[in-house]
């Protein structure tokens, strides 16, 4: 199956090359991604969730934090399409606003992770020597702890709150990136085009930014997409434990925690946020897998 | 002879490995006049490429330039500060590599890579830099340069890519071009075209060319002078006509005999080039393969001495001297 698909891809490139002459753009990553139905499904799901998060004020039927004690644990109705929670808050509205919080915090945490991991990984790989040693030993130390437990300790020390959770996660999460990126930089910097760039008088930073960074970027994109799902899970997990989002902030993990005592009488309180988390994580994983195939350097460099 | 634009004196580059010191380049000296071509020939692993990289101080650890001088325009490149050296690289001395597929960045378009050098060195706006790159590509015989510049290296044929590499080196009109086996990866027709273009541009720009090759046919077509390297040192050098017609070193003679000629028997050189690791320096490095080896060759390493006007040979018993004496 795989072989047949590869052969088809190859044939596709060939026809195009023959049609447009020698200097053509090969099969683009986007074209390959479009052919991957699962990845496309993930992309569509994520687009919907992002749209919902962005348009939350217009989509939510109720104020997500408004308490209505007269309608506690109410079944679905016209006013509350998915019913209410133990404080009579609209579950649907909370889920819609929760998308903002969950996706937003995960994206911010990921940005922080990249801001730490990319430069440190590149520095370690490119400079080598004691710089490499220092960074990598730090990475080793951090990797010796279970990540989530360490994040728990950091977040616990900093005190509860979404910002602290993001910070804690970023502080333990960057190590994986630094390690992977360092490895790739080590491989790329030995390539002849780096030597050629140096022979042209390109500066150290020019080489790092223009020659090394673009060559390590596509695996990082794949890694980041897959990690978005993991980060959402981690943030939800920490919120579930009471460290992340504080009441009344609507956050999926915190909603799970809120609904836990009512699991038997009102399972919808945990069911809906759980489904949301699962769907989004699944979507990120599908897209990440698709991107990995689409951005595979072996496919992009084939003629 | 005109004042040389590039003068290399006693250049030595060693690699300090865990097994010992590898003397990749040992006491290499040569000079290059403007507009002239010097060919550096020798077998694989004799130090040709390391010599080229050493000129621009591009040798990576564990390699190290241990001694020597590289004079360009009255400045010793081996003593320049790294920021000054960066301005020399590409602008005054440019390098072309053997395999253009690996020497071009696979993820950047050709145009970006070409323009980058111009922008970095001359501070031109990108648009201007691209225009200049397109012009040069056209002069190098590449049709539709605009379209070419939008493509990625892997989309081009080997010949086109090598022309792009050449264009990259020539963009800043360097005074010296160092080409490390620029046509080895190509088939002979493309090789001939590229060499012809190289020669034409060399004339137009008045550029000196240091051509590294193991192809004696290329040497005959291109060189004014030739330097034969063996085991990290130059064993014979001089004007190409002299060296080819009256080779004085047994290695040069053997090398010339190993070129296929119609109607003549091909004579391979017996044995292997010596390992540069722990090469003894109290005897001639060619000794184990030399058909003429004598007692003196085991006792002392021969120095590069003049045997004819402009022709230097590192051999205790060079042919010419013996024939005449």
UniProtKB/TrEMBL annotation, chain A:
<dbReference type="Pfam" id="PF00528">
    <property type="entry name" value="BPD_transp_1"/>
</dbReference>
<dbReference type="InterPro" id="IPR025966">
    <property type="entry name" value="OppC_N"/>
</dbReference>
<dbReference type="InterPro" id="IPR050366">
    <property type="entry name" value="BP-dependent_transpt_permease"/>
</dbReference>
<keyword id="KW-0812">Transmembrane</keyword>
<dbReference type="GO" id="GO:0005886">
    <property type="term" value="C:plasma membrane"/>
</dbReference>
<dbReference type="Pfam" id="PF12911">
    <property type="entry name" value="OppC_N"/>
</dbReference>
<feature type="transmembrane region" description="Helical">
    <location>
        <begin position="265"/>
        <end position="288"/>
    </location>
</feature>
<dbReference type="InterPro" id="IPR014157">
    <property type="entry name" value="Nickel_NikC"/>
</dbReference>
<comment type="similarity">
    <text>Belongs to the binding-protein-dependent transport system permease family. OppBC subfamily.</text>
</comment>
<keyword id="KW-0813">Transport</keyword>
<dbReference type="InterPro" id="IPR053385">
    <property type="entry name" value="ABC_transport_permease"/>
</dbReference>
<feature type="transmembrane region" description="Helical">
    <location>
        <begin position="103"/>
        <end position="126"/>
    </location>
</feature>
<feature type="transmembrane region" description="Helical">
    <location>
        <begin position="162"/>
        <end position="181"/>
    </location>
</feature>
<keyword id="KW-0472">Membrane</keyword>
<keyword id="KW-1133">Transmembrane helix</keyword>
<feature type="transmembrane region" description="Helical">
    <location>
        <begin position="220"/>
        <end position="245"/>
    </location>
</feature>
<dbReference type="GO" id="GO:0016787">
    <property type="term" value="F:hydrolase activity"/>
</dbReference>
<dbReference type="InterPro" id="IPR035906">
    <property type="entry name" value="MetI-like_sf"/>
</dbReference>
<feature type="transmembrane region" description="Helical">
    <location>
        <begin position="138"/>
        <end position="156"/>
    </location>
</feature>
<dbReference type="GO" id="GO:0015099">
    <property type="term" value="F:nickel cation transmembrane transporter activity"/>
</dbReference>
<feature type="domain" description="ABC transmembrane type-1">
    <location>
        <begin position="99"/>
        <end position="288"/>
    </location>
</feature>
<dbReference type="InterPro" id="IPR000515">
    <property type="entry name" value="MetI-like"/>
</dbReference>
TrEMBL record, chain B:
<dbReference type="InterPro" id="IPR003593">
    <property type="entry name" value="AAA+_ATPase"/>
</dbReference>
<dbReference type="Pfam" id="PF00005">
    <property type="entry name" value="ABC_tran"/>
</dbReference>
<dbReference type="InterPro" id="IPR013563">
    <property type="entry name" value="Oligopep_ABC_C"/>
</dbReference>
<dbReference type="GO" id="GO:0005886">
    <property type="term" value="C:plasma membrane"/>
</dbReference>
<protein>
    <submittedName>
        <fullName>ABC transporter ATP-binding protein</fullName>
    </submittedName>
</protein>
<dbReference type="GO" id="GO:0015833">
    <property type="term" value="P:peptide transport"/>
</dbReference>
<dbReference type="InterPro" id="IPR027417">
    <property type="entry name" value="P-loop_NTPase"/>
</dbReference>
<keyword id="KW-0067">ATP-binding</keyword>
<dbReference type="GO" id="GO:0016887">
    <property type="term" value="F:ATP hydrolysis activity"/>
</dbReference>
<keyword id="KW-0813">Transport</keyword>
<dbReference type="InterPro" id="IPR050388">
    <property type="entry name" value="ABC_Ni/Peptide_Import"/>
</dbReference>
<dbReference type="InterPro" id="IPR017871">
    <property type="entry name" value="ABC_transporter-like_CS"/>
</dbReference>
<keyword id="KW-1003">Cell membrane</keyword>
<dbReference type="GO" id="GO:0005524">
    <property type="term" value="F:ATP binding"/>
</dbReference>
<dbReference type="Pfam" id="PF08352">
    <property type="entry name" value="oligo_HPY"/>
</dbReference>
<feature type="domain" description="ABC transporter">
    <location>
        <begin position="6"/>
        <end position="256"/>
    </location>
</feature>
<comment type="similarity">
    <text>Belongs to the ABC transporter superfamily.</text>
</comment>
<keyword id="KW-0547">Nucleotide-binding</keyword>
<dbReference type="InterPro" id="IPR003439">
    <property type="entry name" value="ABC_transporter-like_ATP-bd"/>
</dbReference>
<keyword id="KW-0472">Membrane</keyword>
